[in-house]
Amino acid sequence: MKTFLVALLITIIYHAEAKSWPGMVVRRSSLETLLPKNVHTLTDCMHVTSEEGIFIYRKVRKNSFLRAPSEGLHLVEMEQPNEQQVCGVYLMTDPDKVIEVEVEFSDVSCEFGGLLGFVDGWELNGEYFPNINDHELPLEQRVYEFCDKTTANPFTRKALRKRKFISNQNGAVFQYKIPYQGSFAISVRYVHNPKPCNIMVEGVAPYYTLQNYGNNRNCSLTVTYPAVISVLAADVGGSKGNVNYDCDHPSYTDKVIIGGSNGLDSSQMTKSTGICGKTDVKGPEQAIFCGVTSVRLESSGKYNNKVFISVRMADENDLNIATAVCDL
């Protein structure tokens, strides 16, 4: 019943005062105060969040919502809208969770060039996290795009548009392109992931764990800022000897690669160190002065590899321990 009422209120908000003349505005209606408190109105083209709840967006003809300030409506005018601009809600959560996105409502017309999409991971400037070699699915199964075909019955349109997506890691993006007018509402929640592999770092934790669980796959840690990395403990490659910091060679099939890049694609990173072997002693700190810092655990499937990593933000005092530098 609660879900029905939320959906009904969203429908009322989005269908009130719908049509007028060209020129765009994003509006927050006073009716939104009737919705649960975890409702977020999207006003920035790139919205990065770790919050759960309902995210709503509407673009309408400008003259529809010319109201006196006394009415309490929040107006955001788009003076020169880029009709082909792709915007996104960039979602991230704890390393041991995945992201569930459900489309509660959408009115984004295919006829007018509108498009909605879900990306299993992050996409930015044509680069992806996790990169195409580190994700368990091919790219064509990670990106979903859809829009709404016009039908006479609005309630039928809503039923047909209900969709649910679940990511494979703690980062995902909901994208939208609405050239003229349209609206949507999505609900976001975070679900426990018992075997995390690829991790996007949101803040700073005491340590992060990369583990392949005996599988033939790569697992990666992606930090979206210059960072100082240290290996706290490792068991990689089944070696009974000490840790080796010179394993970045084809003969070593199981290893940890540390480095950085200016984009999300860690396969293009400037490499700092290749590590394999076993240790429970904290290793040296390595400063990666790149826009994106990456740690990738490469596994053949012959061993149950595991590495514990510490991460902190790098600053100018860490230049003396820099092991990789990109053109920032």
Structure notes:
This protein is mainly beta and 328 residues long. The chain has two helices and 25 strands. The chain starts with a helix and ends with a strand. Helix content is 7%, strand content 43%. The longest helix is centred in the N-terminal third of the chain and has 14 residues, at 2-15.
Task: Set out the fold topology.
Layout: H1 2-15, E1 24-28, E2 39-41, E3 46-49, E4 53-61, E5 74-78, E6 87-92, E7 97-107, E8 115-119, E9 122-124, E10 127-129, E11 143-146, H2 154-161, E12 163-166, E13 171-177, E14 182-192, E15 199-201, E16 208-211, E17 218-223, E18 227-236, E19 255-261, E20 270-275, E21 277-279, E22 286-289, E23 292-298, E24 306-313, E25 322-325
Parallel strand pairs: 2-4, 3-6, 15-17, 22-25
Antiparallel strand pairs: 1-4, 1-5, 4-14, 6-13, 7-12, 7-14, 8-11, 8-13, 9-10, 16-24, 17-23, 18-21, 18-22, 18-24, 19-20, 19-23
Give the overall pLDDT as a whole number: 83
The arrangement of helices and strands along the chain is HEEEEEEEEEEEHEEEEEEEEEEEEEE
Cα end-to-end separation: 52 Å
Number of β-strand runs: 25
Unreliable sequence segments:
4-34, 63-80
β-strand percent reads 35-45%
**Overall geometric form:** elongated
**SSE class:** mainly beta
The count of helical stretches stands at 2
**Proportion in helices:** under 10%
| Rg (CA only) | 23 Å
Largest sheet: 7 strands, mixed
Task: Fill in the keyword field for this structure.
mainly beta; seven-stranded mixed β-sheet; six-stranded mixed β-sheet; 25 strands; elongated
